[in-house]
Every structure is written in structure tokens, then in C-alpha cells.
Write a structure and sequence with these properties.
Layout: H1 2-28, H2 35-41, E1 46-49, E2 59-60, E3 65-69, E4 71-72, E5 92-98, E6 104-110, E7 115-120, E8 123-124, E9 127-132, E10 142-148, E11 154-161, E12 165-172
């Protein structure tokens, strides 16, 4: 009888511990380790309005969460045409500048699906990898990984957003994922 009570107590305890983990499962159900990005999305965001042109683009820093206000897409003058052609009716877009101190793989994480381009020295940087988190209401929904050069002004172009407000961050990718380990390459 004591054994049955001990087994029942252990099962109840393990179920109680599993409930919070299951509630966060959509936010960590990627083949990538996204715990850092999910934690960052749980912090206070800095409000910022995206620029409509390179000179009007505000600067952001890595390892911070931003609540970015976008503009109607027809008002944005992109440095390069977005990498994916899309309708501009009702879409939102914007530009921000970024400079990183160390070269390497970085993740741009966003809470809504839309297109992300990174422009460096007048050229579009290729996407290294990407992944998505379906059903993650408290963290990023999409993460796109790029290899970024150090100490160079980069222009992040957001386009095709279905709403004017988004949360975003830029984080250094963990070393184990520096050469991709996510979903198969396709459109970011």
C-alpha cells in the first residue's frame, strides 16, 4: 500500500512539473536551441519607430528586444528591392540599422511572419538558415540566421508584414548552430 502511494505521489509530481514545460513547448519545439530568444522575448521591449529610408533608419543593438512600429510599405524606400516580391496593399515595412562588434552567425527573431533582408555594403546578405515556432504566443515566431560582418553598418529591411507593430531582436547564434542546423533552406 505504501508503495502504491509513493508511486502515485511521484506520478502527480512529475505531471505537475510537466505542465509548465508543456505550456511552453510550442516556444521550444524547434530543432534549434531557442531558449535565449524566448527568454529575451519575455523581457521589457524598447519602443522604436522603423525608418522609411536609410538615413531615417534608427540604430538597434544586439541582445535587446524592440517593439518596432512599421510604416505602410509604399512609404518605405528600400536600399535594395526586398528578396521576395509581394503585394504592398495593406502591408507594412521598415528599416533599422545594426552594427555588431564580432563577426559570425546571428539570428533575427520576430513575432510575426514577414520578409527579412540584410543589406551590407550595397549587397544583400544570404540567409544562412531559418526556423519557425508555431503556436508560440510569448516568444518569437520566426528566426532567420545570417552571417554578419563586424563593425560594418548593416541595414535590416522588414517587408510584407500584416500588422504595423512587431517585436524583434538580434542575437548571436550558439556555436553549435553557427553553420545552420534548422529547417531546410527556403524563403526567410
Amino acid at each position: 500500500m505504501k508503495l502504491n502511494i509513493a508511486v502515485a505521489a511521484a506520478l502527480l509530481l512529475s505531471a505537475a512539473v510537466a505542465l509548465p514545460a508543456a505550456a511552453q513547448a510550442p516556444c521550444t519545439s524547434s530543432s534549434w536551441d531557442v531558449r535565449h530568444e524566448v527568454a529575451l522575448f519575455g523581457s521589457a521591449a524598447q519602443a522604436l519607430t522603423a525608418g522609411t529610408g536609410r538615413n531615417a533608419a534608427p540604430s538597434i543593438r544586439a541582445e535587446r528586444l524592440y517593439d518596432l512600429r512599421l510604416m505602410p510599405q509604399p512609404q518605405v524606400r528600400f536600399a535594395m528591392a526586398p528578396g521576395k516580391a509581394m503585394l504592398s496593399d495593406g502591408a507594412y515595412a521598415g528599416l533599422v540599422k545594426l552594427k555588431v562588434a564580432q563577426p559570425g552567425s546571428y539570428r533575427i527573431s520576430v513575432d510575426v511572419p514577414f520578409w527579412i533582408d540584410v543589406v551590407a555594403a550595397g549587397k544583400e546578405l544570404p540567409t544562412e538558415d531559418f526556423t519557425g515556432l508555431r503556436g508560440c504566443s510569448s516568444g518569437p515566431r520566426k528566426l532567420v540566421q545570417f552571417v554578419l560582418p563586424a563593425n560594418e553598418e548593416l541595414l535590416l529591411q522588414f517587408s510584407g508584414a500584416t500588422r504595423a507593430q512587431l517585436r524583434m531582436s538580434v542575437t548571436k547564434a550558439p556555436p553549435a548552430l553557427a553553420h545552420g542546423h534548422g529547417s531546410a533552406p527556403a524563403s526567410p
